[in-house]
Structure formats: C-alpha cells, structure tokens
Prior knowledge:
The protein is an alpha+beta fold.
Amino acid sequence: MTGRENEGSGGWSGTMTGGLERFFIHVASECPYDMATNAVYHQAIFGQLSDEAMGDFLGRGYRRNGNCIYTMHCRNCGLCVPIRLRPENFRLNRNQRRVWKKNQDVVVEIAPLTMSRENVALLQRFLTTRFPEGRSSAENYYAEFFITSIARCFEIRYRVAGELLGVGIVDATPVWMNAVYFFFDPAQGWRSPGTLNILTLNHICQTQKIGYLYLGYWIDGHASMSYKSAFRPHELLIDGAWQQRQ
C-alpha cells in the first residue's frame, strides 16, 4: 500500500475496486454508544483480506469486529468520526508526560493474540465493572470481536510486578497499526491505563516506523470516546478526507 492510497479523498482505491463493495449490506441495531437513534452498520464478512486491502478499509474509516468490516451509516447522526495519528508527528502534552512517567514500573510484552485464562479473567472483571448490564461475556468478546483471520492480530500486555494491568488488542503491519480494543484492571484506573496504552502503541509505531495508528472512532462529548482527541496532532476523517487537527 502506498501512502497516497491511504490518504485518498475517499474514493475506492485499486484494491477496493475488485468487487468487494458488492458484499456489503446495511444492518440496523441498537447504538453501541447509547445514542437515542438506532445505529446502521454498513458491513460485510470476509474470510481473508490482504494487508493492503485491510489498510485501504482503515484509510476509508472502516473498522473490524472479528471478520466483519464495517462503518457507520446512521441516519441523522454523524457523531462517529474516524481518528488516526501519524506517530512521527505526535507530541506529548503535559498530562501525557505525567502518565508516561508514573508508569515507568510497567513492563510491556508483545505477543500473538491469546485467549488465556489470565486475559479472559481480567476482561471479565473489566466488563463487569464498566458494563454491569452484562451485554456480553469475555469469552464472547474474544470469539466474536478479537479473533480474526482477516488481519494480523497481536496483543500488548502490560504488567506491574508480574500482575496483569491491561491488554491491548491490535492489528498491525509494517505500514499501519489498528487499535481494536483495550481492557484493564479497574482497580488500577489511577494509572490512566487508556492513555498509557495509546502512548505505548504510538511509541511502538515510532520505533518500527509504522506510518499510521488508527484509534477507531472519536465521539465529541462521549466520556469513553472523546479523550482520543487529546493526542495531537491527530487526523479526523471528515467528508471523505483526512483533516489534521493540531
């Protein structure tokens, strides 16, 4: 994938014109971000995709859920805005420097995605605390959301004194990294683990010279989604074009 393809104005690149668009359908569902109107997913399920095709999807604002590629086509709502970083340009602010400094005791491990008992137990504790309504179990998150055959998926483990602090699920190639999900020990919230995870992913991208770090959706005013805009400069996909925000 060339940088120019990924930065396009929104038109299908050469990879995407191979007929993939015909597999997409619209599916209405309850909004995952608790908005009043139903969500409408523009989605398709694939058995396998090349790194280039996956990069093209990400460059157009698509996300993945297991082997499902989707973007939001919700009526009368455009709050879900794709956001990405260019790691080489990223600058830490004062708060991010504090988070980085106070977590110097954290050990980072990179490994292929594993559905270990340790990971599942931490994810279940996270879900029970953050989503007490119990929409889905940790096992379902792995089976339906994390595990995939359409992207090279890894996990970033964070440990303190051997104990698991958090796990970041990412897709990655030498060209791009996609932050899929992050969960952590609710008792360690004082560490700002969500911020630590993005700082770590950005650091990995800088070290490996990965050009793009996709952070999913930014939703202005949404408590669990709006914090992403604190990482600057960032780019938002607006009207089919990536626009930089300082």
